[in-house]
Amino acid sequence: MVKKNLVFIILAFFSIYVFWGSTYLWNKIAVTQLAPFYISGIRMLTGAVIVFSIAKLMGSSLAVTKRQFINCSFAGFLFLAYGNGMFVWALKYIESGFGSLVSSLNPLFVVIILAVIHKRKMQPLTIVGIILGIIGMVLLISQKELSLKEGSLIGILMALSAVIAWSIGSVFVAKADFPKNHFVSTAYQMGIAAVLLLGSSVLIGEEWLAPQYWERQVSISLVCLVLFGSIGAFTSFNYLLKVVDTEKVTTASYINPIVALLLGWYFLDESVTGQSMLAAGVLLIGVYFINSRKRTTNVTSKNKS
Question: Residue ranges per domain, the chain?
């Protein structure tokens, strides 16, 4: 059983709340110059090397069982190869703040997946939350401004598919067998994702621009993505999925959009329309209802590893 530590839990929540909220801005900046799978692949490869090194310096064994490697591969694909790579690609067509609002649907998908897997009857608050989530999404994507932007629909669909992949991964990781050390687990997932992303980048013919030609703000964004987004936030995310309920981890969806909207508005001069704010309010209220429901059974109890 993974040992709980209140200080670590608080720091981990801060990491997934604030650091992840910032990644929308950093990815949006990076994708203005670099190809999406190439960006994500470099980010994951660099992160994997650093995290493997940290684990080794800590004296942790890097050995994993066959089952753990398979689980890391599956999680790495869902979270980082498809979930992150496809979402970064979507940011070529949609604004960072808008993308963060799409991501706020993560708890909605998680609770639906859990209900299907465990065949559990949804409680009234859950149903209300799902309905509000759908209404918020309709408000978000029905804006006239979006219909005038080329590629906005494909961007929304790509972002939604990435969020669904992330939600499936969240449910899977909560119960699957992974390496006890969270640095080791994170490093394997990043390394596997890096191979998948860079391989995909080559297959689809993305242009690889050498680091010396990157613009200054792009270089800064990649550093922030590796240190704070990959190492800090993703390691925290893996840790939290093992020590608290999956639904509690998804409460990052409350904070991430606020952080992303403010940063996108301040640094990228992204517009924040009245309809977007209304959609954000409806979505977040829906997420609140989903996460505040009374639990009759602990369907997300953690496995012993």
Answer: 6-292
